Amino acid sequence: MKPVIDKKRRVSVAPMMDWTDRHCRMFHRQITRHTWFYTEMVTTGALLHGDVSRHLDFNHEEHPVALQLGGSEPADLAKSAKLGEQWGYDEINLNCGCPSERVQKGAFGACLMNEAALVADCVKAMRDAVQIDVTVKHRIGIDDIASYDFVRDFVGTVAEAGCNTFIVHARNAVLKGLSPKENREIPPLRYEFAYQLKQDFPQLEIIINGGIKTLAEIDTHLVHVDGVMLGREAYHNPYLMSAFDARYYGDIAAPKSRAQVLHAMLPYIRAQLELHGKSEKGGGLRLNSITRHMLGLMAGLPNARGFRQSLSDSKKLALGDPDLLLQALARMQQPGAY
């Protein structure tokens, strides 16, 4: 049975390719109970012509979790959204923000911001197909478009199709000449555009994304918008999220300590290795596929480097023994050990 979901997306973790897989989300869920998680982008082609289970299977404990789709054909998106609903996701999110050339060749991602009417058609098709929320993640502009009017008109057009939630990465997407990494760093942040969207569309849920790293920054943004989405800071410094439940959702239950988070992951890791095999040979699950997401758990603490080194030891990882986590924890508890 699906748990009761708090529909307020006060804080969330962004979809990040090669990072926010089901193992990462399961790890993050040990730290925060209420934060919304988003999958890596899954293309409609991968779902309609590939291994659906491989792309959509997730852990019951991950809720609330949203499926991010990449595509631009309304009918294909509707079918894919329906699959997502059937698999139990809490939200379907359409990617209109990814600037990579691979995504552009598929005519979706950030380039869709040039086709607001098509995005509206995609949203309507998905909304007609599912009962769960359909949301859009987008940039504030593309290439050298610097006018607020551009993103305002995009949001207005898509909202008319029934989208009530917009996740605004407050940077332009430069479609030619910048890598995806550079697109996350070089275009200037214009948080005021997201703030203005909330003023112009007070009935919509506006969530801000881009370069946000601290609780103080989250607090500042929440004065102006409905929610904040963290990206790489949540990945590299995940224990920051231990403050989220009490601070943003009113849940006063004590968060797990870092050591408790680590111990909570052990049964999951053992079960996954047992289910999928410990050996890399034959396509089995490698221990590193899970532990790589945990390297930042001790960020900011003495001996954190020793913890990371233990979890990155290729020889020990090859043994596939989850007790490597306990060895890493023990190294943390030895003053001066790096």
From TrEMBL:
Every DUS-like FMN-binding domain range: 13-318
Annotated positions binding FMN: P15, M16, M17, Q68, K137, H169, N209, G210, G211, G231, R232
Reaction(s) catalysed by this chain's protein: 5,6-dihydrouridine(20) in tRNA + NAD(+) = uridine(20) in tRNA + NADH + H(+); 5,6-dihydrouridine(20) in tRNA + NADP(+) = uridine(20) in tRNA + NADPH + H(+); 5,6-dihydrouridine(20a) in tRNA + NADP(+) = uridine(20a) in tRNA + NADPH + H(+); 5,6-dihydrouridine(20a) in tRNA + NAD(+) = uridine(20a) in tRNA + NADH + H(+)
Pfam families for the chain: Dus
GO MF: flavin adenine dinucleotide binding; FMN binding; tRNA binding; tRNA-dihydrouridine20 synthase activity; tRNA-dihydrouridine20a synthase activity
Enzyme active site: C98 (proton donor)
UniProt KW NADP keyword: yes
Cofactor dependence: FMN
InterPro entries on file: Aldolase_TIM, DUS-like_FMN-bd, DUS_fam, DusA, tRNA_hU_synthase_CS
SUPFAM superfamilies registered for this protein in UniProt: FMN-linked oxidoreductases
Site (Interacts with tRNA) residue list: N95, K181, R184, R305, R308
Keyword annotations of the record: Flavoprotein, FMN, NADP, Nucleotide-binding, Oxidoreductase, RNA-binding, tRNA processing, tRNA-binding
EC number: 1.3.1.91
Function: Catalyzes the synthesis of 5,6-dihydrouridine (D), a modified base found in the D-loop of most tRNAs, via the reduction of the C5-C6 double bond in target uridines. Specifically modifies U20 and U20a in tRNAs.
Entry similarity comment: Belongs to the Dus family. DusA subfamily.
PANTHER family: FMN-LINKED OXIDOREDUCTASES SUPERFAMILY PROTEIN
Protein name: tRNA-dihydrouridine(20/20a) synthase
Native source species: Herminiimonas arsenicoxydans
Gene name, Swiss-Prot/TrEMBL: dusA
